[in-house]
Amino acid sequence: MLDMSLTSIIILTLNNLEKTKKCLVSIRKYTHQPYELIIVDNGSTDGTIQYLKKFPDIKLICNKQNKGFAGGCNQGMKLAKGEQLLLLNNDTIVSHHWLDNLLKALYISPRIGMVGPLTNSTNPPGVKKPANVNYSNEVQYHQLASRFNQHDPSKWKAMQVLYGFCLLLKREVFDKIGLMDERFTIGTAEDNDFCLRATRAGYTLLLAGDTLVHHDGHASFKRNQINLRRIQSENIQKFVQKWGIQPSALVRSQLDFIPDGLLVKGIGPAIYYIDRQLRRPIKDQETLNYLKFKQSDAISVPNPKIQRYHVGEKIDKEVFSKKILNNFLVKSNDRDEIFLIQDDCKRLIKDKISLNYYGFLPQKIITLPNQIIESIQSGKNLESKIEFETQLPNLKVFKCFNTFYLSMNNSFYPIKKVSLEKLKLAPNKAIKISPQILYKFPIGKEIVYSWR
C-alpha cells in the first residue's frame, strides 16, 4: 500500500563503507519529511552489509553479484512504498532543506515529473557550478548549504536530462514509464534513457538550482576498479542502437530556427512569411500593405539560413482569403468580434482587456467578408489572463523572474533578450508570469540566434 506523504530513498552500495556511513548520517540529520530507506547492495566485501544490518529501519537487499545501477535501482523501486521515489548515490552527502526544496520543485505543477539538485562535481551540460560553491571539507559544505539551500524558484531550470546521482520522481512517472533499462550494464546512460522516456511521456524535468547536494562522483567505479571509459563506450553504443541518437543529442541546449509567423528577408528584394517552416514569398507591396506589414517589419537573415527553408506558395490577397494564415488578427466587415487565427482555427478575443494584455495591436487587424470568417473552424476563446489559459497564443514574450520565454506550439522556449531583439520582438513588453504558470506548459530548448 502506498504512503502518499512518504519519499522512498533508494541507495545502491558496492563497498565504500565510510562514504555510505556519511551519506546515511546526513540523511538522518537533515531530512525532516517522512521517508523510508531502501539499500540495495551489489556484492560488498568490506563490511558494508554487516554494518547495514544493524539498522532495523533499513530495507536491505543483498545481491551476490553486481546487478549494476539500473538493476539495483529497479529492485529498490519495486520495494518502495512512497509516493515519491528518490535515487541517491552512496557517495553523496545531503544537507539543510535538501528534500524539502526538491519536493517543492517536484509539485510546482502536475507536468513536472523529475527533479534533481545542483552538485559540486558534474552538473548537466549547460549548467555551471555557481561561483560561490567552494568548500574543502564536510563542515564547510554544511555551512555553505545552510545559506545556499534556501527555497528560490528563480533558480529552477527546465532540463532535457538530469543525472541519476540524486533523482527525485513522482510515483505516477514510474508507473507510466516503467523500470530502468537494464541493458545499460553497471552504470552510465541509464539515467539519460530514463529521462528521455519521461520527457516523451509528456513530463518536464527540473533542475532545482536552489539545492546543493555534495557528490564525490564515480566513487564506486574508482573503489572497485571498474573501467568507466569502457563501460561508457559500450552503453553509449547501446543507447544509439535503442534510440538512433547519441546521448549528447539530448543535452544540446539550444535551437536556431525562425519561428512561424515572422517576416524575413535576405540580401535580395524578396520578403518571405514563415509558415509551417516554409518561406512563402510576399507577392508585392500591395500584399504587404494588405497584411498590415511594413518593409521594416522584416527580419534581416543571412541568405544561407533563409535557404534552409523550402519555398512555399506565394502569398497574395486572393491566396490569403482562401486560406487565412496562422498568427493573424481578423474581423468580419459587419461585426466587431476580433479573432486570432491559430492552428487553422479562429480564437475569439473576448474584449479589449485581452487584446491589450497580449499586446495585440488594433492596427494589425485585417477586415474580411463575414462568409470567410464563418468558414473558419472555431477554436478556444483567448482568455483575458494567462492564468486561465490552456492554449498559449504563439509568438508572445513572457518573463518569469529574470528569464524571457517565447510561446510557440503551446510551449515556452527560453530566449535571451538579444535574440528577442533580433526577431524584432519587444522584451520590454514581456508578460510577467509565475513559476506555477510557467511549468503548467512544456518547456522547450533555448532559442539562440548567432547571426549578425
UniProtKB/TrEMBL annotation:
Keywords, sorted A to Z: Glycosyltransferase, Transferase
UniProt pathway: Cell wall biogenesis; cell wall polysaccharide biosynthesis
Pfam family, one: Glycos_transf_2
Recorded GO MF terms: glycosyltransferase activity
The keyword Nucleotidyltransferase is annotated on this UniProt entry: no
Listed Gene3D superfamilies: Spore Coat Polysaccharide Biosynthesis Protein SpsA, Chain A (3.90.550.10)
Transmembrane domains' residue ranges: none
Residue ranges constituting the Glycosyltransferase 2-like domain according to the UniProt record: 8-178
Organism domain of life: Bacteria
Signal peptide, first to last residue: none
Family, as annotated: Belongs to the glycosyltransferase 2 family.
Protein name: Glycosyltransferase family 2 protein
Lineage: Bacteria, Bacillati, Bacillota, Bacilli, Bacillales
